[in-house]
Specification:
heterodimer, A: alpha+beta, Sulfite Oxidase, Chain A, domain 2, 8-stranded mixed sheet, 5-stranded mixed sheet, 9 helices, 13 strands, elongated, B: mainly alpha
Chain lengths: 330, 206
């Protein structure tokens, strides 16, 4: 038999409803906060400011593009493809924060009369020019960047390439799964790079150019941007910039340059040979197998603009490819 | 006072507000220019991911009901499905306006030439009849069986949506794989269930 509940033991209705409303308000606030939290996880983090050392005695270059508005330093330094650190462009700046780039040296080796290692101080002794170039990413966006650097051929000529040298291979520093990148004494990276498995491409990252491309005056070794040393996320302390090719050809944080007799392997070509060729010249007429390359979004702009043949450097570089089928040699 | 009815209303509001929170935050960040260097790309990616999230949530309702007996969840499925449709529509509009300058010809060409666009478009088109027939009146008009059959399009839309997500990736498939695994589990559950039901049925007949 159930015990009789005395009426004074029953919770008054108004109190019962109050407690109910209180719980509901809690559930409401808690769940919306949790949802907002999940959203914030995928939200781009606020941009990170960078401060690097200025580069002395930078001279202006006649090779710069005129007329295009420069992309802001904030956007250049917070929207990066540097897969060793993160595959999220907005996350690279923070992921690369602890990357130690001192001391640094580059081995320039292979089919050369005087192969040797260049310390960073030597690299910075070459006449540093400001080169304002368009950068077109294979993903369909572009920037205009005031690089600081010097022609790649200036460096290559120092080691006296042999006539048998037909190509130049480049390699990015990597301290992840395979710390022994080369015989070069490497800087102590903070082991902040991720594995090939996480990035979906093989590391260390490698790239290559044909020797005549490498010797072209527009191809530069960059040491800075906006008059200052390169921020980590942009490929500190020294990178390649080949403005008429898709951005991934402009390899970052270089530790090795090798003159070779045969075409060297390149990372994106290894990852997807049908999508990324050795040449990878900017070409609005040859679509990526999955998306069009006819247009691009300039960072800082809302609409799209037409992509230019060889990224607008056709007058300077088209002759390098005369007689070549650019659909086959994409 | 009817507590159960009151509860259902409360949960409906709760789910509605939670479903709208990402939109509010996206709008807020867009207004203050906090979507990063490439706001259009960010907006596109986020609305696309939200579409898939809500589509998968809507497909989660039936397994939860069957496994845990949480039958009252059915009350909220329509709203979740409509949010999937809504985020999908915003996603498509963003692409049409900002990537294609609303040139219909360019969009049609894109669908024709780019399989990943075709998959995305197919997924969205499949959601249209589902949204249109989501009202009580339409359920009645179609009849429960027909309505249910039509709404199995959600499975196909889910598959097309996840394939669309896979195909735009360059090399890092982490998120598409997660969505793919969840989808396989949700659809696999239904497949296993229907096989089991068919076996039971044929057993009864014999």
């Amino acid at each position: 038999m159930a015990e009789k509940i005395r009426s004074r033991e029953i919770t008054p209705e108004n109190l019962y409803l109050n407690r109910r409303n209180f719980i509901r308000a809690g559930v409401f606030a808690g769940s919306t906060l949790a949802t907002a939290g999940v959203y914030k996880l995928i939200n781009p983090p606020p941009p990170k400011e960078v401060e690097t050392a200025p580069i002395e005695n930078v001279v202006a270059s006649t090779e710069s593009v005129a007329g295009d508005e420069l992309t802001s330093l904030e956007n250049i330094t917070n929207y990066n493809n540097f897969y060793e650190f993160s595959t999220r462009k907005t996350a690279v700046a923070r992921a690369a924060e602890d990357f130690v780039t001192e001391p640094w040296s580059i081995s320039v080796e292979g089919a050369a009369g005087k192969p040797r290692v260049f310390g960073m101080d030597e690299i910075l002794k070459f006449t540093q020019e400001e080169r304002i170039y368009r950068l077109r990413c294979v993903e369909g966006w572009s920037m205009v960047i005031p690089w600081v650097g010097f022609p790649l051929r200036t460096l290559l000529n120092k080691v006296e390439p042999l006539s048998s040298a037909k190509y130049v291979a480049f390699q990015t520093f990597y301290d992840g799964a395979n710390p022994k990148v080369s015989g070069v004494k490497l800087p102590q990276g903070a082991n902040s790079m991720q594995s090939s498995f996480g990035a979906g491409i093989e590391f260390p990252y490698v790239e290559g150019l044909r020797i005549d491309e490498a010797m072209h005056p527009l191809a530069i070794v960059a040491t800075g941007l906006y008059g200052k040393r390169l921020p980590n996320q942009n490929g500190a302390p020294v990178r390649l910039v080949v403005p008429w090719k898709y951005g991934f050809k402009s390899i970052k944080s270089i530790v090795r340059i090798r003159l070779t007799e045969t075409e060297p392997p390149t990372t994106w070509n290894i990852a997807a040979p049908g999508e990324y060729g050795f040449y990878s010249n900017v070409n609005p007429e040859v679509a990526h197998p999955r998306w069009s390359q006819a247009n691009e979004r300039r960072i800082g702009e809302i609409g799209m603009r037409k992509t230019l043949m060889f990224n607008g450097y056709a007058d300077e570089v088209a002759s390098l490819y005369s007689g070549m089928d650019l659909r086959k040699n994409f | 006072m009817n507590d159960a009815k009151n509860d259902a209303k409360f949960y409906k509001i709760l789910i509605f507000v939670n479903s709208a929170v990402p939109l509010a935050l996206l709008g807020w960040d867009a207004y203050f220019g906090r979507l990063g260097a490439n706001p259009i790309e960010y907006f596109l990616r986020t609305t696309g991911v939200l579409t898939l999230v809500f589509l998968l949530l809507s497909l989660l309702i039936t397994p939860l009901r069957k496994i845990f007996g949480w039958n009252q969840l059915i009350r909220y499925r329509r709203m979740i499905g409509l949010f999937a449709f809504f985020y999908g529509a915003v996603h498509l509009m963003t692409y049409s306006v900002f990537d294609k300058s609303f040139r219909i010809g360019a969009i049609v060409d894109d669908v024709w030439e780019r399989p990943f666009i075709a998959f995305g478009m197919a997924a969205f088109i499949m959601l249209i009849p589902l949204a249109v027939t989501s009202t009580n009146g339409m359920i009645k008009r179609l009849g429960g069986k027909n309505w249910q059959r039509l709404h199995r399009l959600a499975y196909l839309a889910g598959i097309a949506g996840v394939v669309h997500f896979f195909m735009i990736q360059k090399s890092d498939y982490f998120y598409p794989v997660i969505f793919g695994v969840v989808l396989v589990v949700l659809l696999g559950y239904r497949l296993a269930k229907s096989k089991f039901a068919a076996q039971k049925l044929s057993g009864q007949i014999r």
